[in-house]
Amino acid sequence: MADKQALHQTYLPKSELFESAHVKTMEQYNEMYKHSIENPEGFWKDIAEKFYFKTPVQGKFLEYNFDVSKGPISISWMQGASTNICYNALDRHVQDGNGEKVAFFWEGNDPADEGKITYSALLKQVCQLANVLKNNGIKKGDRVAIYMPMIVELSIALLACARIGAIHSIVFAGFSAESLAERMQDGEVSALITTDGFWRGTKLVDLKSISDKAIDLCSEKGLQIRTCLVVRHLSPSDEIVETNGNGDQCDGVAKRPCHKLKVKWVEGRDQWWHQVVPAASEECNCEWMDTEDSLFMLYTSGSTGKPKGVLHTVGGYMLYAATTFKYTFDYHNGDIYWCTADVGWITGHTYVCYGPLLNGCTSVIFEGTPFYPDAGRLWQIVDKYQVTKFYTAPTAIRALMKYGDELVKKYDRSSLKVLGTVGEPINPEAWVWYYNVVGDARCSIVDTFWQTETGGHTITSLPGCTPMKPGSASFPFFGIKPSIVDENCKPVEADQEGYLVFSQPWPGIMRTVYGDHQRFETTYFKKFPGYYCTGDGAKMDKDGYIWVTGRIDDMVNVSGHLLSTAEIESALIEHSSVVEAAVVSQPHSIKGESTYCFVTLCQGIEFTEDLVTELKAAVRTKIGAFAQPDMLQNAPGLPKTRSGKIMRRVLRKIARGDRDLGDVSTMADESVVDTLFSLRPSTV
Ligand code: 6R9
To answer: AMP-dependent synthetase/ligase domain spans which residues (predicted)?
Structure first.
């Protein structure tokens, strides 16, 4: 346990580690920040000059409307210019003579599996895959779903789409067939890129059969997926049985023994990556994209339960991903950088793929989990590659703390300079452990607050200059103008909690919700005209540090994964025994938050352990294993307002065993509260 003082003191960056930092002092930060806010065009124009544009800006550098009362919300950066992000991430470095530099070290789930790929080899394979996609009729503007584990081919797939102007829609490989199908339908995708299967820890995930099921679900709803490209990731073996097709040897990276993984094959639709990609031409010209053309969509939970396809565009996202990466991690040539996030989430998009590659960085991609083969795995990898900049989530830090310091200290971590965190507020205890134990009281910690919607970091410390306060993401990144406001959009006093909003656009902000611009406007811009509303609560202390306190809408942040309570409720209600369900968040010592579900059963149905198991499985199938509820409670009745709205505020108190319910005057039937308290499982 850290002492109280350690939790509340301010930590200064170690100047000897940051002698050549991009930003060395707070004066320098303040000056650059001021320039970025007062003259965003000038600030970003200078940055844009370092990138390749096929044609220069032909209209306004920045044009926007953030105020719904003045017309539709619109944001455009670098009007009329054309570029390609894949060109800037790969070709540019190869042309500069850095083709032989390693782009990615790949570390498999099993410590014996490893690989690496240089910038020129990556470019070659991206071009080959891009040609395969083109040969399958995929063209600029078409949507391609990607459902893969953390293997190098995932980055190749994303870059190949970007090269030909296809919009990638990556679905995290922990999602179920139904969630994948829902996302493919919403995006009306033409093709799916997936993998036969993969190991996560000791668990084998049969990705191809989940993909098959998702494709069938799409076809039932009228969407035909005509191309399914499959990476053979598990080693070739007699035990792989295809019902149709052939079983050529592959030269995939993983060499572990494969377990009986049956891969079903649909002739004409399914194609093995290793048969078509190496055979394709290595030349593929880039599609020159308008800076405001779409680059990708990525689904994030929506408070109504239906996920939103957050859409990002080429030019602004490119500038923002590259610039945030450079400054937040104080990137320099020679760094070995490692972000543990999965590419299925925005952190993986921006800080595993685009940000590092745009800077010509060498990074590590890790397929496995922090706990396999043991809880020292992350530090063993840091040691093996001499990682200098490391980025992970508070949930991982909290879980690893439990295993004690020895598993960390066993490995050499003297290469580390910057430790990043992302995904949820980090509690000061975990921060201090990360700082003292992992970073040997030497490294700077960057607590980065941002969202799928923001494209890149929005509030973060900078490693060379920001005095760090454990638990605070500290100050805005260049171009971000935050305010903390009350319900009436008036700024709150120091140390008061309010809504965190941003009042002018930065290049990486999302441009719309795919296919539903109105939802984009209502979700983010309606509540406070003139501002982008993050949906998070925050406070600013007297020194100007921002402390993000968490979501203020019906969202739960479980281990850094944002889940909508409505989505979990609808999965529970689909079960034939359930009449009604209400899900609330509950603090959790490792996951940050967990879900506590109240279920009202049909007349005559008993609340048994078997039923609880079935309901958990229902959520797993509908959404994915990571969404499985932690606690289910029988709720013969739910507290409701007279107008019939479930009072989640009251349920949250019941879940926490807190009888101080506050004002319940609007509740229709107060007697349900006592019943719920009496049925509360004793194990909570
Ligand atoms: C990047 C990412 C976004 C939500 C966001 C907030 C929470 C992320 C945080 C943080 C406090 C941090 N969040 N980073 N809260 N401090 N450093 O996680 O994107 O999956 O869209 O989640 O995560 O609540 O609104 P996304």
So the answer is: 96-512
Query: What CATH number does the domain containing 630 carry?
Result: 3.30.300.30
Question: Does the beta carbon of 461 lie inside 6 Å of ligand 1?
Answer: no
Query: Rounded to whole angstroms, what are the CA distances from 562 to 301, 508, 525, 669?
Result: 6, 20, 20, 32
**In sequence order, what are the residues at sequence separation of 6 or more whose Cβ sits closer than 8 angstroms to the Cβ of residue 295?**
85, 162, 167, 168, 289, 312, 313, 314, 317, 318
- Which residue is closest in CA terms to ligand 1's atom 22? 451
Higher-scoring residue by pLDDT: 538, 235: 538
> Domain for residue 651, yes or no?
yes
Q: State mean pLDDT over 190-216.
A: 94
| Ligand 1 atom 5 nearest Cα | 451
Predicted TM-score (pTM) of this structure? 0.90
Q: Which long-range contacts (CB under 8 A, 24 or more apart) does 255-262 make?
A: 255/112, 255/113, 256/108, 256/110, 256/112, 256/113, 256/199, 258/234, 259/204, 259/234, 261/196, 261/197, 261/204, 261/206, 261/208, 261/234, 262/209
CA of 447, closest atom in ligand 1 = 17
Cβ of 330 closer than 6 Å to ligand 1, yes or no, is: no
Residue nearest atom 3 in ligand 1 by C-alpha distance: 451
pLDDT digits (tens, 9 = 90+) for 348-398: 999 999 999 999 999 999 999 999 999 999 999 999 999 999 999 988 998
Whether residue 300 has its Cβ less than 6 Å from ligand 1: yes
Per the structure, the count of domains in the chain is 2
* 158 backbone dihedrals φ, ψ, rounded to 5°: -65, -45
Which atom of ligand 1 is closest in space to residue 345's alpha carbon?
A: 20
Name the residue range of residue 138's domain: 112-288
Q: What is the pLDDT of residue 395?
A: 86
CB 595 within 8 A of CB 566: no
Of 288, 323, 345, which residue is a domain's last? 288
Answer yes or no: is the C-beta of 273 below 6 A from any ligand 1 atom.
no
Please give the distance, rounded to the nearest whole angstrom, from the Cα atom of residue 24 to the centre of ligand 1. Answer: 27
CATH number of the domain bearing residue 238: 3.40.50.980
Q: Which of 288, 309, 325 finishes a domain?
A: 288
Contacts of 306 (CB under 8 A, 6+ apart): 567
Residue pair 80/57 in contact by the 8 Å Cβ criterion: yes
pLDDT at residue 238 is higher than 50:
no
Residue 172 counted as domain residue: yes
Extract the tokens encoding 677: 């308290």
| pLDDT given at position 684 | 63
ipTM of the complex: 1.00
The residue to mutate among 427, 532, 548, 561, having the most atoms of ligand 1 within 8 angstroms of its beta carbon, is 548
Ligand 1 binding pocket includes 176 (Cβ within 6 Å): no
Rounded to the nearest angstrom, the gap between the alpha carbon of residue 40 and the centroid of all alpha carbons in its chain is 27
The answer to the question of residue 591 being in a domain is yes
Average pLDDT (76-104) is 98
Is residue 554 situated within a structural domain? no
